[in-house]
Amino acid sequence: MAQQRVVTVGDRIAMWRSLRGWTQRQLADFSGLSAGFIGMLESGQRQLSRRRDLSVLADALQCTPEDLTGEPFVPGDADEARAYSAIPDLRVALLDASVDDPPDVAVRSLDEVRRDIAWAQRQWTDGRYDSFGPRVPGLLDELHALAASAHEPTSRAALAALVEAHYLAYVLAKGLGHPDLALVAGSNAVEAATRAGNPTLVGFADWVHVMGLERAGARRKAPRIAAAALARMEPHAGDSDTATQVYGMLHLIAGLLAARFEDRALADSHLAEAERLALHTGEGNAFQLHFGPTNAAMWRVESAVELNEGPRGEEMASDVNPAAVASPTREADFCLVLGRGLAQREDGARDREALRLFLRAERLAAHKVHNDPLVRGIVEGMARRDRGGNVDLRSFARRIGVGAE
């Protein structure tokens, strides 16, 4: 049987460029990237390792990042299919219900619902999208109904829980390639937190919203919303340890966004402030954010990768113990970031080390790895360059859907 060629990000860039009637030089002019780099992307000699480059190419081509990556991807196995099965119900729960118009569903006690949220958070931390995913739409429905209660203490507590449930909705939608739903989840979280009237909760919801904006490619709006959120949160940053952690997380996302705009000075300023706050809080985990010295260091490494400084990120990573955050999915994130940094070597000299990091991430949180569009592209490029028949690489490429059939 003839092998089926995988459609790559480079193929899609070439297709959209052709539809616009542009040369590679014209796309370079519109995107700010070099014509040589675009040519190598289209030919498969280079792969995208930075989300910034994906965003600017999509903006220039007047398409979405998902048009270039091919997201959402086809599930690779039964577990992934179970995770994806949550998306239709999640779409309805996010778009067809609100506190003012709650769904007509059977509702358990708030304590029971909160126990389910805590369980779902543990499953997500362990990278089990197939376990927690199908539960999220029902949790949103119940919490909308509970938040509509005329009993104010119940309503206020349900609103707080609804913010956390929307964070679960965000990570599910983002992780499975539905950034539009991730953005809705972030926006809904802000609405619920604002109704609850708790400044720290609003700060957390703002962080989710900014993350959703970033994932959806809102390159101009995301930094503005992050700056406004920081200004709102600053007077409350010392209210509690939880408030300080939320304020620190807002600095981390602001720093990463600055790195994606290649503003090193602004990125360093935000990251340094987050690191200062982390020394004060120690290793924390308010709202499952794992804010502390370790996570702050991990975000700085990712910022270096976004600045196209993979070797510098690798050097900084040598002092980081990702296991300190006690989150397999966060540790997997870090492995993927480091692998992307190593893949910035044009000659492919660090491919084997990058592969080891990707395989480690897969053992920690397979669903996250299999649905990461940049990692899929990098692995496809590795497989194309491989001349020695690396069995581990070929097997991994098939598992994530970029190996030839």
Give the SSE map.
Layout: H1 9-20, H2 24-31, H3 35-43, H4 51-61, H5 65-69, H6 78-84, H7 86-95, H8 110-125, H9 129-132, H10 136-147, H11 152-175, H12 179-196, H13 199-215, H14 221-233, H15 241-260, H16 264-281, H17 293-306, H18 310-317, H19 328-342, H20 351-364, H21 366-370, H22 373-385, H23 391-399
Describe the structure.
By secondary structure, the protein is mostly helical. Among the domains are: about 120 residues, no CATH class; about 110 residues, no CATH class. Helix content is about 70%, strand content about 0%. The termini are close together. The relative contact order is 0.10. The mean pLDDT is about 95.
3D shape: globular
Contiguous runs where pLDDT drops below 50 for at least 5 residues: none
* Number of extended strands: 0
H/E order of the elements?
A: HHHHHHHHHHHHHHHHHHHHHHH
Largest sheet: none
Mean pLDDT: 93
> First CA to last CA: what distance?
9 Å
- In percent terms, what proportion of residues is strand? under 5%
Mind telling me the C-alpha Rg? 21 Å
**Helical percent range?**
55-70%
> Which structural class do the helices and strands define?
mainly alpha
Discrete helix count = 23
